[in-house]
Amino acid sequence: MGLPVLWLAAGAIDAALAGSNGLSATMLPTALRETALLMAWVGAITSVLGLVSAWLVTHYSFPLRRLFEWALILPLAVPTYLAAYTYVEFLDFTGPIQQAVRALTGAATLRDYWFPNIRTNTGAAIVLSLVLYPYVYVACRAFFLMQSASLNIAARTLGASGLRTFFSITLPLSRPAIVVGATLAMMEVVNDLGAVQYFGVNSLTAIIYSTWINRGNFGGAAQLAVTIVLIIGVLILAEQWARRNRVYLSSRDSRVPPVREALRGARAWGAFGFCALLLVAGFGIPFGQLTYSALRTLRPEAVALTISAGVPTIMLGCVGGLLTVAIGLFAARQSNGPGGPVPRGAIRLATLGYAIPGTVLALGLLQPLGLADLWINRATMAAFDWRPGLILSGSMIALCYVYAIRFLAVSHSTLDAAMRKRGRSMLDAGSVLGASRWRLLWRIDLPTLSPAILSAATLVFVEIVKELPATLLLRPLGIDTLATVVFARANVSLFAEAALPALAIVLIGLIPVVLATRPGIGRKV
Amino acid sequence: MKATLLASLLVGTTLFTAVPAFAQSGEVNIYSYREQALLQPLLDGFAEETGIRANVLYAGDGLLERLEAEGELSPADVVLTVDIGNLVGAEERGLTQPITTDALERVPAAFRDSDGAWTALSLRARVFYVSKDRVDAETLTYADLATEEWDGRICTRPGDHVYNIGLIAQRIAATGLEETREWLTAVRDNLAFAPTGNDRGQVKSILDGTCDLAIVNTYYMGAMLNNEAEPEQKDWANAARIVYPDAEGEGTQVNVAGGFIAAHAPNAANANALIEYLLSDEAQQIYADTNYEYPVVPSVSPAELTLSWGTLNASQIPLEEVAAHRAEAAQLVDELRFNEGPQD
Fold this sequence. Notes:
CATH class of the largest domain in chain A: Mainly Alpha
Structural class of chain A: mainly alpha
CATH superfamily of the largest domain in chain B: Periplasmic binding protein-like II
Number of strands of chain A: 2
Shape of chain B: globular
CATH topology of the largest domain in chain B: D-Maltodextrin-Binding Protein, domain 2
Largest interface: A-B, 75 and 68 residues
Radius of gyration of chain B: 21 Å
Domain ABC transmembrane type-1 (chain A): 32-239, 310-516
Pfam families (chain A): BPD_transp_1 (PF00528)
CATH class of the largest domain in chain B: Alpha Beta
Structural class of chain B: alpha/beta
Strand content of chain A: under 5%
CATH topology of the largest domain in chain A: MetI-like fold
Order of helices and strands of chain B: HEHEHEHEEEHHHEHHEEHHEHHH
Helix content of chain B: 40-55%
Oligomer: heterodimer
InterPro entries (chain A): MetI-like, MetI-like_sf
Order of helices and strands of chain A: HHEHHHHHHHHHHEHHHHHHHHHH
Organism (chain A): Arsenicitalea aurantiaca
CATH architecture of the largest domain in chain A: Orthogonal Bundle
Number of domains of chain B: 2
Number of helices of chain A: 22
CATH architecture of the largest domain in chain B: 3-Layer(aba) Sandwich
Subcellular location (chain A): Cell membrane
Largest sheet of chain B: 10 strands, mixed
Number of helices of chain B: 14
């Protein structure tokens, strides 16, 4: 993880010394403002949506509550760029809503009626929030289920209304959970490339991309990238501060299970309506629009495209997933063991890679990987008179490296949690009986952790399938994944042609959601 | 379908090996930014004529960055890309070697590098798509965009996209930096909305009534009119007609799709043979008919559909000269905060 960041820092300083920082001066204020605005909006909207929906499904019972309880995480299956593409299709002039408006009013063009333009910063914030609120929802719901109901009961006994209880007890107490969820949502915003480009938002990531790719200005892009890494650092500090509080809260054991108040009449339908709207907006519309577009453009070419991009996608997901889980397992054994060769601080640092945008990683890796290839080839040429070619930058090794950096946190946290739950007694027994480290791994860790390994691998697999920016920039030339195919088509207004591959991404994204609903939700965060 | 499946499985098995070091004679390796639908017929023709087999890696954004990182290990012989910025950028980064084929002479001097580092293979004009219903003008100039008449009526993709950088750089070459600054400021303030989306999207804005004049490349008209996968794009195209700006004066700005031979090409001779073929009458006709671009070889005629939009009188300012102003153009876009839309 250090390599790309250090390379970028060097590139940024190099560019500053060369005096070519005119770019940062002109573009940085805009980029910072637009990014901050987008993050603030997404943070605020996801917090409200996630908190209210989690509060409703844990504190009240109303029609279809049990369905909503798991279905409300479905939007996680929709990557941000797909949310952008589908919402633009849906709300655009040629989409169903505006068609209906014109049919009802007899209007012919947008000059005859007013319709909000979704391709703005605000539009982007709303659409992104609709698929990112589950981060807050999952965190808050888990928190509410863990939290003792005694405070709420006390408040209600003292005559406080449900709303008053919400504002004076629930809201202040759940602040850490909200911060955790909203931080994750905002990191997705920083990482996003496809959606901001599509909405025309000049966010930092979008500008890094265009500075590097459209203008061939590596130094300028590196300067912006260093800025973004600093911003993320602040976010992480905020998030860890919040987590510290959460540990404190969850450690109390005077637990009274939450009692759900049955809502009736208008209030029941209000709660139902809120959850239903959220679900439709976050999942129903993107999924429906995709299905519609996919069916409308269902031609042999679309199927061929999905297969030719799907095969490498799945292979990448499997290999990258296995690699990331293997590293995660190693790291989790380190942090749960008596102390190994790698200090725990280093592992914590390594898991922060999830916060670095894919665009930034690609920017920081392309050149060093090329150089490494060169050195390897010179060495093999000298030693064996043979050149292996571009074994790092020309193959999927580069991508797997990035995936391991970005998604180590996912595999590590899943395995770490499972190891804590299992405890050390079996391992200690094994050690006492003289088993080697490898034997312990083979005979104890792998069998006892297999469910956790499987779910970690699934989660990483799905993240890889959805990943866009790094895959776009580092994939072996000539290889397309589902995500890059969709991106390329959408960028030339041919999104409908890529609706089938896009639908495949969402369906794959649903796998962990479906799996998670069985043992209970909350693994993702 | 079966073939695709097989092909992708084959691709799959090579995923973790290095880019195959295909350096045998009788082959040529292409890195292409251009899509398969256009390239395949050209490569079929090339194989038939020369017996040389082409291996293509289709790539997207960031092609030059990749080539640069690969350095001397790159298997690429020929790189096919679009936009003068990419061609000149490749030369500046030392990614090219001189093209030696005599066929280069077929290309007018304005559309190739004077040292043979790159050549255009086809031309596209950056023109005005105007609303059939709301615009009457038959002739327009780039300068007209800055006038009061177009206030709130213009749309274009973001200013820092290579196509717009090319246009702005050409304005600088034609009228000077200061005049272009004033012009671009006025155009920015005449925009109907902050620049977003791509060229086709702008034409859609003509259909939906939010924009009367879109700055778009010519060939999209053909691509939309013939889009069978998404037939509604025919409606977008039918809402607009093309006006060639400055057709009667200094000429319309043209950009290029072109190619160069990679500095470390393992098969330089075959690479030259490929460039020679791409400049032949046969190949130029494929460019014209498949993609509705203008052939760069003057003796080859554009497609009938292309001709129906009007006559192209291309600006004769050498592209090398235009490219020299690209950095200034990008600077202007930033400085005027063009992408944030009207500021008056």
